[in-house]
């Protein structure tokens, strides 16, 4: 069942990525870097379908990446890259949303980021510069994967501006790229978005007991010392879902109105009560 869901998500992610490209970005010559960006360039310069460029370039990348990726990840990535090419062909010239390039950059970047994020969250990639970055990083460890991807994407974006003689295009492409990266990060990490809460109170025993009994969340007591007063005590630390913060604050307030609370964002939480798979 889990395998079926995983492959369904790979198909869904590839389809969403292709939809964002075909409907919002490619018609307006917006190349958000990578292989799809090259495909956009070749489409307008040589009338070669984007799907064909993506398929050929990714195939070459996978040949060189064969020794650098685990076989399971490689097969999943090959499937996702192939599906992306198929869906790019399916959604080509499906419909036109409008001529506002800002709106298209925002929605195109969001859809592309969501699709890539869904694929990445399931241990695969849609090919392209991701594979190139992994290979370069393996050969030259001092060069980070992120820097390679960023450099490759920006190179394609600026090449598009030169080819199309429209340097304002850079702004829209960078906007789409920024939105895409943020949405991808949210899909991969932010689905486990949580809040870490630190509580300093003389009523720490009562507060921790109420959190355990009424919220069924774990609490850790950390020995602490107030450097101004020199008094020792216990600082409580727990991690909760965003929707549970209000309830937690009420529990603390009812026990000690003078309690000191620190709440911060947590990108990902692994363990019982949250995502349990490492």
Main features:
278 residues, alpha+beta, 2 domains, elongated
Overview of this protein structure:
The protein has 278 residues and is of the alpha+beta class. The protein has 2 domains: 2-188, no CATH class; 193-266, Alpha-Beta Plaits, CATH 3.30.70.120. It contains 10 helices and 4 strands. Strands 2-3-1-4 form a 4-stranded antiparallel beta sheet, covered by helices on one side. A hairpin with a 6-residue loop joins β2 and β3. α7 (145-163) runs antiparallel to α8 (168-188).
- Average the pLDDT over all residues and give the rounded result: 86
Tell me what portion of residues adopts beta-strand conformation: 5-15%
Could you say which structural class the secondary elements and strand pairing correspond to? alpha+beta
Assign an overall shape: elongated
The total count of helices amounts to 10
Question: How far apart are the first and last residues' alpha carbons, in Å?
Answer: 19 Å
List the domain count as a whole number.
Answer: 2
Q: Total number of β-strand segments?
A: 4
Radius of gyration: 24 Å
The major pleated sheet works out as: 4 strands, antiparallel
What is the chain-wise order of helices and strands? HHHHHHHHEHEEHE
Strand order, main sheet: write it out: 2-3-1-4
Report helical residue fraction. Answer: 55-70%
Low-confidence runs of at least 5 consecutive residues: none
């Amino acid at each position: 069942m889990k395998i079926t869901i995983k492959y369904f998500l790979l198909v869904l992610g590839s389809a969403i990525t292709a939809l964002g490209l075909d409907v919002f970005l490619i018609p307006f010559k917006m190349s958000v870097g990578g292989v799809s960006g090259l495909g956009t360039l070749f489409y307008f310069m040589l009338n070669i379908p984007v799907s064909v460029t993506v398929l050929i370039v990714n195939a070459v990348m996978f040949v060189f990446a064969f020794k650098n990726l685990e076989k399971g990840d490689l097969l999943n990535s090959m499937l996702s890259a192939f599906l992306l090419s198929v869906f790019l062909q399916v959604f080509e010239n499906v419909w036109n949303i409008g001529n506002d390039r800002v709106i298209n950059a925002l929605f195109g970047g969001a859809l592309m980021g969501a699709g890539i994020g869904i694929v990445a969250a399931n241990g695969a990639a849609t090919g392209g510069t991701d594979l190139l970055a992994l290979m370069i990083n393996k050969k030259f460890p001092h060069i980070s994967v992120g820097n390679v991807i960023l450099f490759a994407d920006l190179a394609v974006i600026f090449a598009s501006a030169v080819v199309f003689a429209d340097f304002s295009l850079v702004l829209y492409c960078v906007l789409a790229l920024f939105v895409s990266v943020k949405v991808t990060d949210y899909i991969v990490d932010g689905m486990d978005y949580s809040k870490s809460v630190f509580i300093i109170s003389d009523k720490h025993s009562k507060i921790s007991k109420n959190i355990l009994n009424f919220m069924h969340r774990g609490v850790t007591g950390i020995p602490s010392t107030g450097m101004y007063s020199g008094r020792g005590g216990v600082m409580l630390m727990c991690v909760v879902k965003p929707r549970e913060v209000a309830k937690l604050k009420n529990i603390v307030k009812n026990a000690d109105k003078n309690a000191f609370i620190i709440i911060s964002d947590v990108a990902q939480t692994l363990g019982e009560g949250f995502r349990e798979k490492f």
